[in-house]
Amino acid sequence: MTTKRSLSIEKYEVGVICALRHEMTAAIATLDERHQPITGQDKLDPNNYVVGRVHEHNVVIACLPAGIYGTNAAARVANDMLRTFSGLRFGLMVGIGGGIPNLPKGLDIRLGDVVISQPHRTFGGVVQYDLKKNVGKERFERKGFLKSPPTILLAALSTLRAEHGLDDSMVPDILADIVTKHPNLVKNGYEFPGRENDNLYCSQCGGSSSSSSCRSCTDGKIERPTRDDPNPVFWYGVIASGNELVRDVAARDTMGRELGALCVEMEAAGLMNDFPCIAIRGICDYADSHKNDAWQKYAALTAAAYAKELLAYISPEQTSRE
Fold first, then answer.
1. pTM for this structure?
2. Nucleoside phosphorylase domain: from which residue to which, for each copy (predicted)?
3. d(CA 146, CA 243)
């Protein structure tokens, strides 16, 4: 990867925020050109940055501090990024999340797929599921509203989806190019884990292989149409965000049913109102008791690759006017 001197701080117009180090690894891997560390960082900004270029966009990447999670932590990182980078025009929240499949409704979300926040129903694309008022008798009233992604990103999203109706996504090519440039990614576990390792467990019997009486599954696993293609599928709609790590199938399905959510994660809700961005989440698990880390690195890579494809549909001139 080419390395050059960093630009003046105001030249960086796109901010990328990640929650985990392997999400940041994936984001850095998409850079077409890496710049040297910046000078002139605000003295009250504790973030650590990687800067570079994606297509014709000058990009700054930051990650939450190690071991720190949640919406408040994400908000702090974003606010400090804005403190230093006065030229930022919009952001991308890029990383992983838990999928919320609903097979009867055709939402066959698989591990390695990508969910992108987009306005749906009365939601702006991200909804904070744990911000609610208890009105008694186990009833809750949802509070607050999170802004939609900026128009420049939604317009690019429309064009990108239209192009996907005609031609294949660039994401497989981007993934192949990333691995060619950074072969250590394969050695370090960022390769495709294989469809045989993608199992959706039954919510009726808890995914127990000993439950022979369940009519919804076979040995605790839901039968789904075969998908041999390793390339990710893209889903657009609501992302549920909150400070609680969800690994309960009942809570997951409630979010899908009541919010129309396709994905659940822990950071985006802290950004939407003060850091104009879009959330891009690679699916690494199904937010159930079988949650594990096997797909996290590959899912982070698919999300970063999608973010790079999206930026190809935004010109630097559009960005500068934002």
1. 0.93
2. 226-307
3. 15
E strand residue ranges, 124-256: 126-128, 132-136, 139-142, 234-241
Cα distances (Å, whole numbers) of residue 279 to 115, 126, 270, 272, 282? 8, 8, 11, 9, 10
Domains and CATH numbers, the chain: 9-312 (3.40.50.1580)
For residue 110, the number of C-alpha atoms closer than 13 Å in the C-beta half-sphere is 23
How does pLDDT run across 132-173, given as a tens digit for each residue? 654 555 455 666 689 999 999 999 999 999 999 999 999 999
Q: What's the DSSP call for residue 279?
A: E
Mark 74-88 as b/e (b = at least 16 C-beta within 10 Å). bbbbbebbbebbebb
Neighbours of 180 (CB within 10 A): 9
Q: Closest Cα partner for 131 from 146, 145, 142?
A: 142
Pairing of β 139-142 and β 277-285: unpaired
Query: What span, in angstroms and rounded, lies between the C-alpha atoms of 177 and 55?
Result: 14
Structure tokens at 225: 């149409």
* Secondary element (H or E) of residue 283: strand 277-285
Of the candidate ranges 7-16, 26-35, 139-148, 162-171, the one whose mean pLDDT is the lowest: 139-148
Q: What is the DSSP letter of 203?
A: S
Enter the tokens of residue 209. 């292989």
